[in-house]
TrEMBL record:
It is a multi-pass membrane protein. It comes from Saccharopolyspora gloriosae. It comes from the Bacteria. The chain crosses the membrane at residues 21-51, 57-77. This is Putative membrane protein YdjX (TVP38/TMEM64 family). InterPro entries: CLS_N.
Length: 88
């Protein structure tokens, strides 16, 4: 009887570890997917902006060199700056 309880306890522990690993993997994949969407959206937004070719190139290089930070900076600073320049 003790052997059977030990087997069930070991099985429950390994199942819990597997579930935890799947949850962690799913969380990592969700973060990577969100990062990829942010990066691609930034590239599309940069290319579609009214900036000159040189400034577009600067923003694209920044996005590739520092993908998360460059993309985030585009949406926080660059996009609004591009709108202000061409609103006049």
């Amino acid at each position: 009887m003790k052997s059977l309880i030990a087997q069930h306890s070991a099985l429950a522990a390994s199942t819990g570890e597997q579930v935890g690993a799947w949850v962690l993997t799913g969380g990592v994949l969700a973060v990577v997917a969100a990062f990829a969407v942010l990066f691609i959206a930034a590239l599309i937004s940069i290319l579609g902006s009214g900036l000159s070719g040189g400034m577009k190139l600067v923003w694209i290089v920044l996005a590739f060199l520092a993908p998360f930070l460059g993309s985030l900076l585009w949406f926080v600073v660059g996009r609004s700056d591009a709108r202000k320049r061409f609103a006049h």
